[in-house]
Write a sequence for this structure.
């Protein structure tokens, strides 16, 4: 069933069955991860680079795990699936694409193409998720791996956007 009516009064259930307000920092954190996932799904339709599309798909699958972990306040219902391997993989992706680009100027004006523009928007949503998770961490524990993952993911999205911008410049020149 799509509707349950259990959220009609501004409450929702976490994975452990506890009920919280829909505007709680925890719900806002995993809701923003969900927003990021949807935005990346939309963004894939503008990206013609199949390697980047494949990497974004991997990220989307992992974002389900990030959201689930954030929706499990005690960490008992959903054990962490995100760890150092995913963070190191992000760093490898960043290094791989940085080698293919010119050094970055001091400031990047986002959005020289639809593909890079949507990734810059996704990067800013990712940064918002990170800020929300940081706020959550001030009152409840948040896995350090999740914090690193989301931080590094924004770097990945920035790198992909810059790479696509440079590719677009080559096409236009």
């Amino acid at each position: 069933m799509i509707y349950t009516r259990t959220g009609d009064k501004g409450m929702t259930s976490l994975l452990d069955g506890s009920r919280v307000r829909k505007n709680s920092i925890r719900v806002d954190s995993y809701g923003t991860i969900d927003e990021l996932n949807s935005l990346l799904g939309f963004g894939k339709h503008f990206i013609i680079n199949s390697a980047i599309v494949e990497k974004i798909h991997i990220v989307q699958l992992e974002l389900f795990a990030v959201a689930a972990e954030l929706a499990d306040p005690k960490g008992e219902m959903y054990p962490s699936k995100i760890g150092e391997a995913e963070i190191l993989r992000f760093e490898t992706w960043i290094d791989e694409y940085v080698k293919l680009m010119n050094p970055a100027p001091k400031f990047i004006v986002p959005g020289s193409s639809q593909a890079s523009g949507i990734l810059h928007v996704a990067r800013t949503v990712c940064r918002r998720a990170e800020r929300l998770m940081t706020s959550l961490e001030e009152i409840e524990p948040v896995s350090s791996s999740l914090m690193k993952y989301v931080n590094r993911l924004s770097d990945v999205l920035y790198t992909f956007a810059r790479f696509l911008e440079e590719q677009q410049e080559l096409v236009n020149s």
Remarks:
- The longest strand covers residues 11-13.
- Helices lie at 25-43, 50-70, 84-98, 114-137, 144-172.
- The chain has a mean pLDDT of 90.
- The chain has one domain: 11-172.
